[in-house]
Specification:
Length: 341
């Protein structure tokens, strides 16, 4: 289940529960829309409700379809009798993640469009050079410098560009899946100026937000910390779950328990420790989460600017290369014309 679907599902479930609607009827309404997998999951939840199985248990049995955080929030709501509140809090969390993603995509949309437009303009030039013929016969001069002409050349060019995009997508996918343990290189990645600190700020904002959310719902600290680390989608951070669990079991404070992981930065832990001393864990973490949320918004702008700059530079380099190639061919023509017969 995607985060947008999780947000809508949580909010509708919370709204229906607040109105006193029957859970089976709510799930039946959900089963009438969405993707095939979504409808199948809703039907499975309905079967669980009919059999008297708690909703969180049925969600957990769906082979990871429902996010771990959503399952835990549902379980806490069932245990504490605050199901409506926990569902609304889960919805707010997923809406927040959707808003962050939308802001990032909005920031890179225009430069990305320009890059795609530049690619198709070059493909069009390649196509035209293969169709038109000079008055003296032969082939048109290769203005692009790629040695490609006509429909076949345009298709080859577009295929190569598509392959490049596919390679970038494959790299992103491999990083997300921790291929060859690449998440262990995250500390080195954080050392990259501008880019590294921005990524770390966004990660810490998500971690703090989930930790505050789960503690506020009444979930025990061990599971709250585990869900917070899991929310980062990084095996590097998930490696801190066990050390934090052991420290909490030994009676350490939350800040000291997280310090035992040797993963989180000192400035973050100091802020957390100060926040702990000023109030309850949930209240202090909410303040810290709001602060990191503001930092994350600035970090997203930084990432958008960096990616936009990279795209702009790519477009400019392509145009400069084409202009230089055209200029050299024009100079070559004039040089040949000025040579003595």
């Amino acid at each position: 289940m995607g985060i947008a679907a999780a947000a809508g599902f949580s909010r509708r479930l919370g709204t229906g529960h607040r109105a006193g609607a029957d859970l089976q009827m709510l799930l039946g309404a959900e089963a009438k829309g969405g993707t095939t997998r979504y409808r199948e999951a809703m039907l499975a939840l309905i079967d669980g409700v009919k059999d008297g199985v708690p909703l969180s248990k049925s969600m957990e049995a769906e082979n990871g379809y429902f996010p771990n955080l959503l399952v835990s929030m549902a379980r806490v709501g069932e245990m504490t009798g605050r199901f409506e509140r926990t569902m609304f809090m889960a919805a707010d969390h997923y809406d927040h993640r959707v808003a962050i993603r939308r802001a990032f995509l909005k920031g890179i949309a225009w430069p990305l469009f320009q890059l795609i437009a530049a690619v198709f303009v070059i493909a069009l030039m390649i196509l035209i050079m293969g169709i038109l013929t000079p008055a003296t016969g032969g082939e048109m001069a290769d203005m692009t410098g790629f040695g490609l002409r006509g429909p076949t050349g345009a298709l080859i060019f577009l295929s190569l560009v598509g392959l490049a995009f596919a390679c970038v997508a494959a790299i992103v996918f491999a990083i997300r899946r921790n291929f060859l343990g690449c998440h262990n290189l995250i500390p080195l990645f954080y050392m990259i100026p501008k880019l590294g600190p921005a990524i770390r700020t966004i990660t810490l904002a998500r971690f703090t937000w989930v930790l505050s959310l789960t503690l506020d719902t009444g979930l025990d600290p061990i599971r709250s910390v585990a869900l917070a680390f899991d929310s980062t989608d990084s095996d590097y951070y998930r490696g801190g779950i066990q050390p934090a669990r052991e420290a909490i079991q030994q009676g350490q404070s939350l800040a000291n328990s997280l310090r035992a992981t040797e993963i989180l930065p000192d400035d973050f832990l100091v802020q957390l420790e100060v926040a702990e001393l000023s109030g309850t864990d949930a209240e202090s973490l909410q303040t810290l989460a709001n602060e990191y949320d503001q930092r994350a918004q600035m970090a997203i702008k930084t990432l958008s600017m960096l990616l936009s700059a990279a795209i702009w530079i790519t477009v400019v380099l392509i145009l400069i290369a084409m202009i230089i190639n055209i200029a050299m061919r024009i100079v070559g023509v004039y040089s040949e014309a000025l040579e003595p017969i």
